[in-house]
Amino acid sequence: MRTLIEFDHLSLDGRHSGDDFWAAQMKVVPNDNQFDYQLRLLEHAAGLVLGRATYEGFAATWPAMTGDLADKINSLPKYVASTTLTQTTWNAEVLAGDAIEAVARLKESGDGTLVKYGNGPFSRALLEAGLLDELHLSISPFVAGSGESLLAGIGATALDLKGVTDIGNGTVVLAYTPSR
Who contacts 30 (Cβ-Cβ below 8 Å, separation ≥6)? Predict the structure, then answer.
């Protein structure tokens, strides 16, 4: 059975979006440690799980990028949750039917890991359905002040700390597993 890992970028106040989120995020210059962490996360990946908006943003950006991380991301199959997307490119397919049920089937279909990027209602639904096996939160040293909270609206969910990685530049990645 595959393991589903979600990776998210967050501000210190737990935001993943907002008017100034990405402008502030870009002031925290990514370094080799961030890219190395991503490569380790993708080492045994059998594919990426993405929502429509993340897929469209990634598909517009990653194919033109170069380097080890870009090579890995570009080569992996992408599984996209969408009720509106009818065509894909970039080695992707739309998950048929109910996205949560489709991800459950995808997890049962092989070995390795599936890495989910992006956040929002799809992430919350996967966590609530018990399908997320690990949650890796890259916390950057800025306060967004506004924007959506990653886990807004989710019921009480206990998490166990699996690890802490100091990325540098004031950024840490906190890895959690849901308490079962």
Answer: none
Domain ranges of the chain: 3-178
35: pLDDT confidence band, cut at 50, 70 and 90? Answer: confident
pTM of structure: 0.90
Helix 32-42 to helix 68-75 angle, to the nearest 10 degrees?
30
Please tell us whether the domain made up of 3-178 is placed in CATH 3.30.56.10: no
Buried b (16+ CB within 10 A) or exposed e, 129-139: eebbbbbbbbb
pLDDT digits (tens, 9 = 90+) for 100-112: 999 999 999 999 9
> Which H or E run includes 170?
none
Torsion 30-33-35-40 (CA) sign: negative
> pLDDT category, 29, cuts 50, 70, 90?
low
C-beta of residue 172 within 8 angstroms of C-beta of residue 140: no
Q: Which is it for strands 134-140 and 92-94: parallel, antiparallel or unpaired? A: unpaired
User: From its phi and psi, is residue 85 left (phi > 0), alpha (psi between -120 and 50) or beta?
Assistant: beta
d(CA 101, CA 103): 5
Q: Are strands 113-117 and 134-140 parallel, antiparallel or unpaired?
A: unpaired
